[in-house]
Design brief:
The complex is a heterodimer of chains A (227) and B (377).
Chain A: E1 2-6, E2 13-18, E3 23-27, E4 31-34, E5 39-43, H1 47-58, E6 64-68, E7 74-78, E8 86-92, E9 97-99, E10 104-108, E11 111-117, H2 120-126, E12 131-144, E13 149-154, E14 159-163, E15 167-171, E16 175-180, H3 185-190, E17 195-200, E18 203-208, H4 212-220
Antiparallel strand pairs in A: 1-2, 2-7, 3-6, 3-10, 4-7, 5-6, 8-12, 9-12, 9-15, 10-12, 11-12, 13-18, 14-17, 15-18, 16-17
Chain B: E1 5-8, E2 17-24, E3 27-32, E4 41-45, E5 50-54, E6 60-67, E7 70-76, H1 79-88, H2 91-142, H3 146-161, E8 166-167, H4 171-184, E9 195-199, E10 206-208, E11 213-217, H5 218-223, H6 227-242, H7 245-254, H8 256-264, H9 267-276, H10 278-281, H11 288-304, H12 310-320, H13 328-332, H14 337-349, H15 362-368
Parallel strand pairs in B: 9-11
Antiparallel strand pairs in B: 1-2, 1-7, 2-3, 3-4, 5-6, 6-7, 8-9, 10-11
The chains are: A mainly beta (227), B alpha+beta (377).
Bound molecules: zinc ion.
Residues 236, 240, 286, 291, 294, 333 of chain B line the site of zinc ion.
Chain lengths: 227, 377
């Protein structure tokens, strides 16, 4: 899987080149265009029950598409739903990343994707639901964000605090705790800050420069309420 | 030879340098991948190491030492390497590691326990809902402290206010203040501090948020023929707050999971979820039973406060005629003659009390609000 980001910035696309027989996973709906040699298979990762329980518990539509170059080499153009940057990571078999569920765009065949349950309080507090995706294995991983992607590099034991709705992905060597944004959580609710994650290095944390939830709330005020 | 660990330190990239760790009697041999054939390797004796558990799920073996390049931290997740380390390392290190491993086990066990509990609660909740969901909702609601409700309402209130013109003083504010005063005096053990906001808008509406914010639009005040009519709406709205109808709706719409959460005692999670709902609170529609409850308890409250309850009924009757204006209160409060009839019956059942009039002159209050009601096209 060779990949290239087209139109970097707010409205990027990624071009993925596949050799004959190669296949990749992509978020369902990410496919924009492709060569006629490529077949698209929608499949429920983790079987029917897995997909069902994810849908039930998180309300997400987490189906992957498999793009397979079954009739010879070809390319596919992939794009995320929301405006925002795309970042390409190379996994070397040792690095693992946790990715919030909207952050995944595509991954090479060698990437292993697992839905992972967060601990109950983490899941509730972070507002990201109970499942995050764990990416391991070897190969190219394509992530997307809402807004720009910013990389935070943490040294061992270095800490950093991130508003959890800005999280995209983080290495599994980091650990984090969920905290109230300010001294009292009551203040945090009224100030609209919500909850934050205190990350502890070593490792990388990728964040997005825009908060989808706040954006949604901002949009909603312009939508007339019927009824 | 593929990497089985990540090494962190000033001389390595922040994502860690992939490396291969070999365990033998002398200690650890770390061979770095990037340098290719046999280049960079470091041998560290066990005596130099300190060991702990780390990583997202505390399932990494973290090994630290100070080498030629300064402080180095190794994250091992590979099971074979961890086993080899455990078998080969001297006892005092193994002890540390055993403690670390114990920690991992505890974390895992605790998590399994929590999920098991959650599942158990989930199943019993499903069963419970089968037999009486309202009871469960009420139990859940009763466990939420009033302060949380207030903060929740507060954030919705601010969202709303950002786009509104507020009337801060004058006869209208004073009149509503008097009504609220008369009503709240009759509420025993009232945990809420009601705050009334008058918003300049021809919309005929009023609403209450969880925790005690009540918003009244000038359109509603212009539409009412007397202070008693507005007091009727106020009393109805105050009772939505007192009966915690907003919370009930939220808990109902958040569903099973929330109920499980609250029963489990993880109430902080609820706040996170509620936060997302603050905008939706503003368009909250109460259920028919809640409306009836607010009507009836509202009527009783008026009676206790010696405010003529027929004003409330009159206003409801006129609203049900559905005529001019943008009747938004109607959208959340479907008016039917049955509703007014029911109140008449309730009123008849209550002991007669002679009402005490308000001190303000309603026509003057209305005059202070300026131009007459503009009929929307
Ligand atoms: Zn009502």
């Amino acid at each position: 899987m060779k990949s290239e980001i087209l139109y970097p910035g707010a409205f990027p696309m990624v071009r993925v080149e596949l050799t004959a027989g190669e296949h990749i996973k992509a978020e369902s709906g990410a496919m924009v265009a492709c060569s006629p040699t490529i077949d698209i298979e929608s499949k429920m990762e983790g079987g029917f029950l897995g997909a069902l329980s994810r849908k039930f518990l998180t309300g997400e539509k987490f189906f992957f598409q498999t793009l397979r170059a079954s009739r010879g080499p070809g390319e596919a153009l992939l794009a995320p739903t929301v405006p925002g940057e795309i970042v390409i990571l190379e996994l070397d078999g040792v690095n693992e990343y946790m990715v919030q569920k909207d952050g995944f765009l595509a991954g090479a065949d060698g990437i292993v994707i697992e839905s992972k349950m967060q601990s109950l309080s983490r899941g509730l507090l972070s507002g990201e639901g109970f499942f995050i995706l764990k990416m391991s294995g070897k190969g190219t991983l394509v992530l997307n964000s809402f807004g720009a992607i910013h990389k935070i590099e943490l040294k061992p034991d270095q800490e950093y605090i991130v508003d959890n709705s800005h999280l995209v992905a983080w290495s599994s060597t980091t650990s984090y705790n969920i905290e109230k944004a300010t001294s009292g959580w009551i203040a945090s609710v009224t100030s609209g800050e919500g909850f934050v994650c205190r990350f502890r290095g070593p490792g990388l944390v990728y964040i997005q420069s825009r908060n989808p939830g706040s954006f949604g709330a901002w949009i909603r005020q312009f939508i007339p309420v019927s009824e | 030879m593929s990497s089985n660990a990540l090494c962190f330190g000033h001389n390595h990239p922040a994502s860690g340098a992939p490396c291969f760790v070999q365990v033998d009697a002398a200690g650890l041999t770390i061979i770095f991948e990037s340098t290719g054939g046999g280049g960079d390797r470091e041998v560290v004796p066990f005596a130099a190491l300190s060991v702990s558990a780390g990583g997202l799920d505390h399932d990494h073996l973290v090994v630290k030492w100070t080498g030629v390049q300064g402080e180095q931290t190794l994250y091992l997740k590979d099971q074979d390497a961890i086993r080899a380390f455990r078998q080969t390392a001297p006892d005092d290190l193994s002890l540390h590691f055993a403690q670390a491993a114990e920690l991992v086990r505890q974390v895992r066990q605790r998590r399994r326990l929590v999920w098991g509990l959650a599942l158990g609660m989930f199943l019993s909740t499903v069963l419970g809902l089968w037999f009486g969901s309202d009871l469960l909702v009420q139990i859940a609601v009763s466990r939420i402290p009033v302060e949380w409700e207030q903060k929740l309402g507060e954030s919705a209130y601010r969202d709303f206010l950002a786009q509104q013109e507020v009337i801060k003083e004058g006869p209208a504010v004073a009149a509503l203040g008097e009504m609220t005063q008369r009503l709240t005096e009759q509420i025993p053990n009232n945990p809420y501090k009601f705050e009334i906001t008058v918003v300049k808008s021809d919309v005929i509406n009023a609403f209450a948020l969880p925790g005690g914010h009540v918003v009244v639009f000038t359109g509603l005040m212009k539409k009412a023929d007397s202070g008693e009519e507005v007091a009727g709406v106020m009393s109805h709205e105050l009772n939505h707050v007192l009966r915690r109808h907003g919370l009930e709706r939220i808990v109902k719409s958040l569903g099973l999971l929330t109920v499980v959460t609250i029963v489990l005692g993880d109430q902080q999670g609820l706040v996170g979820m509620m936060k997302q709902l603050s905008v939706e609170l503003l368009t909250l529609k109460f259920g028919r039973e809640q409306e009836t409850e607010a009507d009836v308890t509202g009527l009783q409250l008026l009676q206790r406060a010696k405010i003529d309850p027929s004003g409330m009924i009159k206003f409801f009757e006129r609203l049900s005629e559905k005529d001019e204006g943008r009747m938004e209160w109607l959208s959340t409060h479907p008016m039917s003659t049955a509703r007014a009839e029911r109140l008449k019956a309730e009123l008849a059942a209550l002991p007669k009390k002679s009402p005490e009039p308000f001190t303000f002159d309603w026509k003057q209050v209305q005059a202070s609000l300026g131009a007459q009601l503009v009929v929307a096209p």
